[in-house]
Amino acid sequence: MIKKVIFYILAFILGTAIWVILGIVNPKLGESVGSIFMSMYLLVAYYDFMNSPIARQKVLHNKKVESATLYGWVTGKHKGYYQLENKIFQGGAKKEFLDNLRLIRYQLLKLGKEDAKLLQAHLKVLDKNESYMEFFLKVIASLVVGLFLWYVKSSIFTGTTTDHFEELVDSVTYGFFVLITIASLIGNNLEYCYKTRILIELLDSIEDEEYL
Questions:
Q1: ∠199-203-209 over CA atoms, to 5°?
Q2: Count of other CB atoms within 10 angstroms of residue 199
Q3: Distance CA 208, CA 212 (A)
Q4: 138: domain range?
Q5: How confident is the model at residue 106 (pLDDT cuts 50, 70, 90)?
Q6: Count: domains in the chain
Q7: What burial class does residue 160 get, using C-beta atoms within 10 Å of its C-beta: 0-12 exposed, 13-18 middle, 19+ buried?
Q8: Residue at 23 is within a domain
Q9: Local confidence band at 109 (pLDDT 50, 70, 90 cut-offs)
Q10: Are 141 and 49 in contact (CB under 8 A)?
Q11: What value does the mean pLDDT take over residues 143-158?
């Protein structure tokens, strides 16, 4: 996370420096390069955020904490689920897709019927929180970045570059913005929630007499 922040800071400083230097030598060229740079910079940052697991991590709260009461535990942010999660996903992965699913299913069988049913109840609640929270955050992020992008492009570069060039840059920028948004919102329903959902489906597939 820190490395990414440093990368974006350095990229912004370097890009702005090139923009300013070119603007001194040739104002039109400088503004054209600046317009392209701002579009690319914001789109890359937006893509990186929309495809990061930050929302999922905020929902899971996998910290080991102790609560004095059951009420404090059930209403608290941290459930301590990570210990059981690590137990289920322990061991190396296989090359074959189905072999990995068999390994996960076997770990669930080892939990026993009662523990598996309790885990299933937790996962169903977690699944809803993961989906809704991440979707909500991404929609808000899309609106904020979209408005900011429009403000930057309209307030800084309108009238400083040729109209046709700026229209082309804006069209490409907003086109990619829409594609990133759609792809991220669709991917939200599977990619980042896959772990929780595959556990739920595997638990549903297990008959009571199969538990070890």
A1: 155
A2: 24
A3: 10
A4: 53-210
A5: very high
A6: 1
A7: middle
A8: no
A9: very high
A10: yes
A11: 78
